[in-house]
Description:
The chain is mainly beta and 580 residues long.
Amino acid sequence: MSTGPFLADTEQQLDSMLAHITRARATHRTFAAELDLVDEPGAVTLDYDETRAPRAQLQLQCVLPATKAELDRLDPRQGVRVELDLGYVRPDGSEDVATVADMGLRRVVVDYAAQTMTLTVQGDEAMLVDASPVAVGKLDNVASHALGAQTLLNQAINPPPDWVQTGSVGGAVTVDPVSDRWATAQDLADAVGSALYDDGLRTWHWEPVPVLAGTPDVTLATGPEGLVLAPEATLARDAWFNYVQLRYTWRNSSGADQVVTATAYVASGPFAINGDAGKRILLDERRVPTTQARANAAAQSVLRRQLSKSRSFTFEAIAAYWVRPGMTAAVTLPGGGQELHLVSRVAFRPLAGTMTVDTRLPEDYTLATTTPPPAIPTDPPPAPTADPPPPVRTTFVSEWVASASQAYRSNGQKNTVLPDRVAQGYNPGSVNGNQLSLILFTAANSTPAPGKRGETGKTIAQALPAGAQVQRVQVELVPTHTYQSSGGTLRVGWTSDQAAIPATFKSAFVRTNQSGCKVGTPRWVDLTSTELAGALEGGKPLGVTLGPGIGTSTLYYVLVAGATYATASWRPRVRITYTK
């Protein structure tokens, strides 16, 4: 039995501990000093649940900080973390304390009347969920399923977290496209019967789905010398399933819709789907690219987890702070006899020195993924289909010269004094005010970028048919005049709602500031973004915007060569890198 990180004899000493220790603090790389949080009376609950993501969650109720400045430091948006220490004062007066949680602050609720605040803190699975949506991405023949999940994790969390890997890592895998990092990583784990989770201490685990261990991690016994204060047992059908169907739907890189369906069910025994138990079916819709073999394996993995949920036990006990989901508990119930259970959830209340432990009792079933018995003709699983061959994609780098351009006064009206140039910002010597401009790229004048493979004579929409993916968008601008001799600052953005030069134009959204722009010196500006890529892939027209400047500062008064400028090489051009 392991009680780490606590002393080896801690379990035998639990009923004689003098007190329980709780310490919590907020941390951030910018904090000069940690901010202490726990101040009794309050409430602290640390909860681990294997059926939930994030698995580890913490809630603290404590008094408000002494100053508003300290309260303002607790901003969940800026990556503030909370560390929790738990432990015991032993019979000899010594302390046995360990840091059991280091998690991200998600929410702060302030009760000014009571002068308290409640903090919600979650493990780093929440960070992966936050960064799950992916506009363009894939796993291309990654060496193993585990490495694929770790790759997605490292893309989402910076710096990459610690990684502990045991059990089956699975073979090489390709997932194309990846549209959701969290869903894809979980599916890869299911496919090899593994669990993927953060343990609440900034360490991610890829490990086999837990099974009963020969040596228990904790003993839960009733009676005068046991830890259990109040046992409870539940036997229910509601959370139990004997048939799982996974339905995968996605659109591949060629734009074709794909569907793979996998089933797993209990084939024999008292809970078989063709026996008295009947069918209790779990349908799980997943939007993750897969193969038939990987889907079949995931269905069996999900079914194994569901089968053990019907027999559950709940124990109120003295807090054993090393217990976690997946551990084996030796359970002794009233009436005698001991059996081994798996811990599925544990919630600590350290200020009271107690815990609630939920356990489950695994069953032994025969599982199948082949055609169901003839007695159930209504749900035949679909015949396995061959995986579609991966599409062959080509990268193009093409350029388009501006088709039209127009400068606008601050009131949105056209500035007709500059027919061949565009303007941005405030000129003290004119009545145009704080100017802005629009440059359109709608002509069929594409050419290959120098030294690159590109396309000729197409519009942007023609070069980006359904399924094309935009990798990068850059625009080249050449200033013809700056108010200040040292140069000016261009304020560049884009729009996708103008197919022609409008009579009035008032909305330019600045995406990037480009300082130090000199007359006659080309400036390449990177406009790449998920939103712009989606607009161009959807056939929207591309417009580049300049300005307006900031106030009346002449630093932002810049004239730029337009679509009809006499020196053709100075005219605006856009370079797009894309695959199809």
